[in-house]
Structure to design on (626 residues):
């Protein structure tokens, strides 16, 4: 029964062959619907299927050795194609009872590498080569590491095949898709693939202009993106080879192929991610300034086009353009005039709508760090007006970013230039008052924690400025903010309220005690409890960092591929602190609190100070006396 199903229903028909010849790109796409995940072979058919592979072996071996006449079309080629199709679709069911790799090396590889292109062909179509290449993607899990280098060689050689416009397009596409599967596989190793990387790039760029369908071009770009992702920082050595053809690919695309242009934007962003990784770890590869700068200049040009609201195609390109813009700013080390002027696109976009506000706020964050004073002096009024309009009118994710951007402004802009930004911070204060008054409609607690972090940062930097310019010397409002901090410190999670922010809160709360206001002094015990929590959290984090460093030394550095990508992502989460945060992290909080307590003792006198300490838990006091 299985033999009948395979030979009758799984054999290529005359119609299939005609479609392959007349429209190979569509045919290749159609073949993608045949997947092992959607195929299920009953248990009783497995012995019959393995018997079919044994029966096919004799013909396949003879064909690979050139012992089968290839004059005219051989129907057995279609029969073997059907058997191989069954083996691929049944790979999950056969996994435990069929040793694929030795069978593959003996029976199929000789056909794949045979220099005679007519071997395994039918009506001039490379039927068996196509199926063998497809079969590799089905059985990757059973292919050992030592098989992969010769397999790369077999897929990519001769590279002239990809340059020949009249060579079979369906086979080229199938090779590209299988190559993508191999580099995405957990078993991928960069060192094994490295000798074939230049050739892979050459083949992919050679085929791109030959493809007529946007979907086929997307597959080429998808494979390129997978290679960049898998190779990580190592790909930076090929930065020029990858980026040089991109302008031609971009300009040759018609107005109808914005999907392809969007994919090019994503590809460039992925390449910049690898550059960023190489910049952080110079031991992997030497980053050459020239090719990287050329890539950055190119990114600025396409970003300008993709994020221009007057461009009718921006609806298809805006999101990818903003993501590329963010990556460009992260990699850039010099704030150029082109980048400075490009920010106008953000202002025009936000005048229209807030659809992309999260990505826009990330762009703004990078501009504040890269452009510093030059950026702020030019755009401070626009930025303040923009955030004033946005705050309270967006979802929590964007509100959290507004808080983060505001913290950067407060921390990096000279205090005498911050006054114009106070209306935005006042809106945050009003939101905190609404919450503390118990009104039902208020911002989420995580957002309020972000707003309070902005106020706390300002208090820590210049308490007198905060009291005068933000709070208009209203101590009642200050008390509301203090009560909000004391409440949210324990109820908000560590994601919005990081250890750095908790420390900033501690420093700000300590600053309020120096006002000597009775209602604020009454909070001394709670403030000191929070300080103790932060001190203990800092000690615990330091232990974890030391343990992580020790673990990294013991880790096998040779691992790569998808595992390497995961490892790089995990390490990127442990990024270095920003310049403005280093003094805060380095500050000895225990010594700082002791200094505040000594000052209070002097100003209150020993009697009143002793009464104040009586309100503090003894276990808390012992932390500062030890």
């Amino acid at each position: 029964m299985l033999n009948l199903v395979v030979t009758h229903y799984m054999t290529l028909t005359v119609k299939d062959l005609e479609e392959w010849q007349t429209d190979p790109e569509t045919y290749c796409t159609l073949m993608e619907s045949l997947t092992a995940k959607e195929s299920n072979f009953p248990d009783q058919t497995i012995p019959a299927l393995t018997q079919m592979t044994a029966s096919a072996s004799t013909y396949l071996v003879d064909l690979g050795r050139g012992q089968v006449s290839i004059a005219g079309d051989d129907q057995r080629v279609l029969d073997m194609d059907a058997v191989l199709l069954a083996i691929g679709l049944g790979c999950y069911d056969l996994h435990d009872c069929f040793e694929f790799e030795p069978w593959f090396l003996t029976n199929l590889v000789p056909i794949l590498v045979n220099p005679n292109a007519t071997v395994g062909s039918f009506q001039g179509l490379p039927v068996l080569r196509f199926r063998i290449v497809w079969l590799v993607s089905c059985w990757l899990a059973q292919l050992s590491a030592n098989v992969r280098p010769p397999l790369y060689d077999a897929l990519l050689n001769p590279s002239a095949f990809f340059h020949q416009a009249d060579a079979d397009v369906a086979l080229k596409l199938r090779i590209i898709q299988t190559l993508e599967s191999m580099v995405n596989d957990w078993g991928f190793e960069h060192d094994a693939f490295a000798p074939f990387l230049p050739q892979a790039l050459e083949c992919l760029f050679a085929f791109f202009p030959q493809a007529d369908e946007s979907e086929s071009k997307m597959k080429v770009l998808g494979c390129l993106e997978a290679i960049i992702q898998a190779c990580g920082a190592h790909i930076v050595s090929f930065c020029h080879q990858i980026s040089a053809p991109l302008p031609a690919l971009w300009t040759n695309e018609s107005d109808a192929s914005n999907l392809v242009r969007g994919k090019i934007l994503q590809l460039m962003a992925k390449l910049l991610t690898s550059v960023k990784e190489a910049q952080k770890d110079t031991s992997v590869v030497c980053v050459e300034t020239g090719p990287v700068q050329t890539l950055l200049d190119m990114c600025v040009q396409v970003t300008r086009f993709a994020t221009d609201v007057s461009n009718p195609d921006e609806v298809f390109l805006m999101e990818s353009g903003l993501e590329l813009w963010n990556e460009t700013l992260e990699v850039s080390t010099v704030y150029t005039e082109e980048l400075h002027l490009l920010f106008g696109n953000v202002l025009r976009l936000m005048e229209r709508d807030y659809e992309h506000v999260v990505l826009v706020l990330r762009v703004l964050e990078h501009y504040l760090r890269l452009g510093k004073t030059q950026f702020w002096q030019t755009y401070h009024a626009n930025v303040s007006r923009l955030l004033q309009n946005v705050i309270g009118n967006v979802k929590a994710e964007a509100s959290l970013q507004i808080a983060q951007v505001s913290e950067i402004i407060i921390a990096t802009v000279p205090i005498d230039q911050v006054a114009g930004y106070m209306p935005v911070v006042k809106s945050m204060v009003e939101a905190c008052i609404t919450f503390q008054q118990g009104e039902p409609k208020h911002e989420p607690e995580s957002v309020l924690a972000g707003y309070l972090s902005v106020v706390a940062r300002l208090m820590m930097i210049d308490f007198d400025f905060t009291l005068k310019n933000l709070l208009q010397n209203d101590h009642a409002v200050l008390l509301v903010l203090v009560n909000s901090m004391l409440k949210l410190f324990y109820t908000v999670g560590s994601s919005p309220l990081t250890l750095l922010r908790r420390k900033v809160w501690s420093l700000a709360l300590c600053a309020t005690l120096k006002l000597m206001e009775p209602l604020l002094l009454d909070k001394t015990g709670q403030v000191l409890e929070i300080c103790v929590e932060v001190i203990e959290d800092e000690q615990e984090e330091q232990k974890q960092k030391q343990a992580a460093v020790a673990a990294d030394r013991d880790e096998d550095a040779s691992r790569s591929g998808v595992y390497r990508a995961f490892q790089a992502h995990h390490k990127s989460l442990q990024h270095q602190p920003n310049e403005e945060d280093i003094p805060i992290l380095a500050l000895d909080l225990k010594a700082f609190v002791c200094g505040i307590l000594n000052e209070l003792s002097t100003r209150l006198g020993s009697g009143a100070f002793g009464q104040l300490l009586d309100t503090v838990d003894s276990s808390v006091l012992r932390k500062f006396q030890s």
Q: What stands out?
A: The chain has a mean pLDDT of 90. The radius of gyration is 32 Å. Residues 506-547+559-625 form one domain. The chain has 36 helices and no strands.
